[in-house]
């Protein structure tokens, strides 16, 4: 990941090398050290005379892994975490720094990582949410400016939780699916209203659950976007950014005649694999949503590439990969994709624009800009989702609401 690989992709490659017994512990150690990187760096800096940046870059993940075990993973004895970090330091070719690593971590173990060691929320809200909250300073300031301090603090807290895994059955109700899973020894319960999902108990194997119930792994925030599309039975639907395929497959299961498109052939192969597993018909086309090669359809779904700030709990490395400049770049891409999507919506048809970000430039402002360029479209309200998530006739789900990710969706009806 430090070399630029996305954490979820790196994990998918490396996890099969681990035993099932070790996998959960290693996942928490790795994901937690990434999630709380800024918190851990702040603590380590308190014990390093020249600061953490004075150390060779390959040692930083070693220190963070050990610090996370000491501060957050109570089941790991501090001496074991310290010993492991010292051994890793030597193996990486820095034997002269093993004493520094040993001393820093032992000092941290003695003094701990309590919130009292950090700037207080009352006196220094940006510093508190940056260091204790472990988010980039620019993002913290942006959230405070856009949503206010209380909402920004709630967003930070939600982004630091361990995400819940939800399964969306594609056939049968969530109540029936939960009963099937419980009968198979997998603890589950129906998810939030209108999402059509089932909540799996932490630690449950998604693969095992999918062997019992035919469906997809999908967070309620994404499932509500499908609900926001409305009654799709019999409609011709284009999903222009279909990969990884969850929304397209859910629309097929709801009776729509869906064609999925995406720019990436590799990601389309994953969609085809899921459709094959479920026995669903989903024609796929490699194409760009900027110039979609289709005849106009009843419903066009544009689940646009975005900054993903509504899914930082699930993708903790996203906060460290993203820059504020990226949001401007993405908003310009989204503008071109929306214009392309509009060209394949038939008169009277519907364009559903969705993201998994909390940034106004990619959501409300994007819709407002689109309407200024396309006066033959209008916003119309959807139905079927909890009323708290409908604001100004669009779907807005903040992360942490009912334990979900964040999402945004607007229904744009062509006159």
The overall strand count is 13
Question: What is the fold named in CATH at topology level of the largest domain?
Answer: Rossmann fold
Number of domains: 3
Low-confidence stretches are none
- Give me the number of helical elements: 17
Largest β-sheet summary? 9 strands, mixed
* Chain-averaged pLDDT: 96
Shape: globular
Distance between the termini: 47 Å
- Strand portion: 5-15%
Helix and strand element order = HHHHHHHHHEHEEHEHEHEHEEHHEHEEEE
Rg from Cα: 23 Å
CATH fourth-tier homologous superfamily of the largest domain: Vaccinia Virus protein VP39
Helix content: 40-55%
Secondary-structure map with pairings?
Blueprint: H1 7-14, H2 20-35, H3 37-46, H4 59-72, H5 78-91, H6 98-111, H7 125-131, H8 137-147, H9 149-159, E1 166-169, H10 174-183, E2 188-190, E3 198-200, H11 206-212, E4 215-217, H12 220-228, E5 236-239, H13 246-253, E6 257-262, H14 265-278, E7 284-286, E8 297-303, H15 318-321, H16 324-342, E9 345-355, H17 364-373, E10 377-380, E11 390-391, E12 394-397, E13 407-414
Parallel strand pairs: 5-6, 5-8, 6-7, 8-9
Antiparallel strand pairs: 1-3, 1-4, 2-3, 9-13, 10-13, 11-12, 12-13
Explain what the structure shows.
The chain has 415 residues and is of the alpha/beta class. It has three domains: 7-117, NusB-like (N-utilizing Substance Protein B Homolog, Chain A, Orthogonal Bundle), CATH 1.10.940.10; 166-217; 220-414, Vaccinia Virus protein VP39 (Rossmann fold, 3-Layer(aba) Sandwich), CATH 3.40.50.150. It is 45% helix and 15% strand. The chain contains 17 helices and 13 strands. The protein has helices at residues 7-14, 20-35, 37-46, 59-72, 78-91, 98-111, 125-131, 137-147, 149-159, 174-183, 206-212, 220-228, 246-253, 265-278, 318-321, 324-342, 364-373, and strands at 166-169, 188-190, 198-200, 215-217, 236-239, 257-262, 284-286, 297-303, 345-355, 377-380, 390-391, 394-397, 407-414. The strands form two sheets. Strands 5, 6, 7, 8, 9, 10, 11, 12 and 13 form a nine-stranded mixed β-sheet that branches. A four-stranded antiparallel β-sheet has the order 2-3-1-4, sandwiched between helices. Helix 3 packs across helix 4 and helix 7 (125-131) packs across helix 8 (137-147). The N and C termini lie far apart (47 Å).
């Amino acid at each position: 990941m430090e070399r630029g690989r996305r954490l979820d992709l790196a994990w998918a490659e490396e996890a099969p090398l681990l035993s099932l017994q070790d996998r959960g512990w290693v996942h928490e150690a790795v994901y937690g050290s990434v999630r709380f990187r800024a918190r851990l760096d702040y603590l380590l800096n308190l014990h390093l005379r020249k600061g953490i940046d004075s150390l060779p870059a390959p040692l930083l993940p070693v220190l963070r892994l050990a610090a996370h075990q000491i501060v957050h993973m109570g089941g790991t004895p501090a001496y074991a975490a310290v010993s492991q970090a010292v051994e890793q330091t030597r193996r990486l070719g820095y034997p002269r720094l093993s004493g520094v690593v040993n001393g820093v971590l032992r000092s941290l173990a003695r003094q701990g990582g309590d919130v009292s060691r950090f700037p207080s929320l009352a006196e220094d809200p940006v510093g508190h949410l940056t260091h204790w909250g472990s988010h980039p300073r620019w993002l913290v300031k942006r959230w405070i400016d856009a949503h206010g301090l209380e909402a920004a603090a709630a967003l930070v807290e939600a982004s630091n939780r361990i995400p819940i895994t939800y399964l969306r059955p594609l056939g049968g109700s969530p109540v029936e699916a939960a009963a099937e899973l419980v009968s198979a020894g997998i603890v589950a319960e129906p998810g939030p209203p209108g999402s059509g999902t089932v909540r799996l108990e932490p630690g449950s194997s998604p693969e095992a659950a999918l062997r019992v119930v035919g469906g997809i792994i999908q967070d309620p925030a994404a499932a509500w976007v499908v609900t926001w599309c409305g009654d799709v039975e019999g409609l011709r639907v284009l999903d222009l950014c279909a990969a990884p395929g969850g929304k397209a497959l859910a629309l097929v299961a709801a009776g729509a005649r869906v064609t999925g498109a995406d720019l990436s052939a590799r990601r389309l192969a994953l969609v085809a694999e899921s459709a094959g597993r479920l026995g669903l018909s989903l024609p796929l086309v490699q194409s760009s949503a900027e110039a979609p090669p289709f005849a106009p359809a009843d419903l066009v779904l544009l689940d646009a590439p975005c900054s993903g700030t509504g899914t930082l709990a699930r993708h903790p490395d996203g906060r460290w990969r993203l820059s504020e400049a990226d949001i401007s770049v993405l908003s310009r891409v989204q503008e071109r994709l929306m214009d392309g999507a509009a060209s394949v919506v038939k008169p009277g048809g519907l364009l559903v624009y969705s993201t998994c970000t909390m940034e106004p430039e990619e959501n409300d402002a994007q819709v407002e800009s689109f309407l200024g360029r396309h006066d033959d479209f209008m916003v119309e309200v959807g139905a079927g989702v909890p009323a708290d998530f409908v604001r100004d006739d669009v779907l807005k789900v903040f992360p942490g609401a009912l334990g979900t990710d964040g999402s945004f969706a607007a229904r744009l009806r062509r006159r």
